[in-house]
Structure to design on (332 residues):
């Protein structure tokens, strides 16, 4: 199943999010900024986070009504995600995103730093306009967690003693926190003044963990022409993800030292990287990581059991399945 089918119940709302997003980024008097913003709009991603805001809002309300506030929050979440990608690409020295050159490779590091900050500010202007302190707190906390996760990941580079527990802390903060906030914000918009059950937030958290594990697997075994970005970036940056940690788990002392040496060389040497990659692909590391991702998708779907059946609920269930089943089609 493709994302277009999964998002069919919110197709019109997602189009409106796109229009608002375009309006926000075109609302500048400066030609240089406008050029960069148009480039961003043309390199749109899957918009899963904004879709989750819409789906969560509509599944948690008996008479779902789409209002400008909901669209603006969905747009703000997308802007925050875009800002994080701009900064991530700069930190990781990535040259390709969505099949196009990254902002840092096209305009340079200074523009990337300023642009990421600019996108965050546009997002929080939209959030502030909603006038709901619970939503402001929800998304602000998630943004802080994202930044902490990114900082932790950079600080843990080249740490071969990195534990899987610390890996999951990074994943929950850097990636899953915004998915969780997207779902929570949608519920808060539909039920102002109420705290909700927390189930949709837990759905988003578990969904986000599964999403990142699969993304980490695809960095090893994904097809660049499908993913639209360069693979192998994590190891070259010295960032150890779940598949690599499983590879280290299965290595004896001699193998561990060999991998350690190759890992260090792989940051500059393509041949060394290919040797590590071949070892990992020929091991059970990726399969074990994918199985872990499946467990988190099950946890995510379990949070929806008490929600009445509807096309919207089905979309959220299908989206969780898509993360593993659909994304693994991008493998080599």
């Amino acid at each position: 199943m493709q994302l277009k089918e999964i998002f069919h119940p919110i197709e019109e709302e997602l189009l409106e999010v796109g229009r608002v997003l375009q309006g926000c980024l075109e609302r500048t008097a400066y030609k240089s900024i406008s050029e960069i913003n148009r480039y961003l709009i043309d390199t749109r991603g899957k918009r899963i986070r904004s879709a989750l805001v819409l789906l969560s809002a509509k599944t948690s309300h008996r008479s779902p009504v789409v209002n400008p506030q909901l669209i603006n929050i969905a747009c703000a979440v997308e802007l925050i995600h875009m800002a994080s990608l701009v900064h991530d690409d700069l930190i990781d020295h990535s040259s390709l995103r969505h099949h196009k050159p990254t902002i840092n490779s096209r305009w340079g590091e200074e523009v990337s730093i300023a642009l990421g900050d600019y996108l965050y500010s546009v997002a929080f202007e939209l959030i502030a306009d909603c006038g709901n302190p619970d939503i402001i707190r929800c998304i602000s906390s998630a943004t802080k967690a994202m930044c902490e996760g990114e900082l932790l990941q950079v600080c843990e580079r080249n740490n071969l003693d990195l534990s899987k527990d610390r890996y999951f802390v990074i994943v929950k903060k850097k990636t899953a926190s915004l998915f969780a906030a997207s779902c929570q914000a949608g519920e808060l918009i539909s039920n102002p003044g109420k705290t909700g059950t927390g189930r949709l937030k837990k759905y988003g958290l578990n969904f986000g963990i599964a999403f990142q594990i699969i993304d980490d697997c695809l960095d090893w075994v994904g097809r660049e022409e499908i993913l639209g970005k360069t693979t192998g970036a994590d190891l070259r940056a010295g960032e150890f993800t779940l598949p690599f940690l499983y590879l280290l788990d299965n290595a004896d002392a001699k193998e561990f030292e060999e991998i350690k040496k190759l890992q260090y060389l792989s940051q500059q040497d393509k041949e060394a990287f290919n040797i590590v990659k071949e070892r990992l692909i020929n091991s059970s590391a990726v399969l074990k990581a994918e199985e872990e991702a499946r467990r988190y998708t099950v946890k995510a779907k379990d949070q929806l059991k008490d929600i009445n059946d509807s096309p919207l609920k089905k979309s959220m269930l299908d989206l969780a399945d898509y993360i593993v089943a659909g994304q693994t089609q991008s493998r080599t």
Remarks:
- The beta strands are 96-97, 100-101.
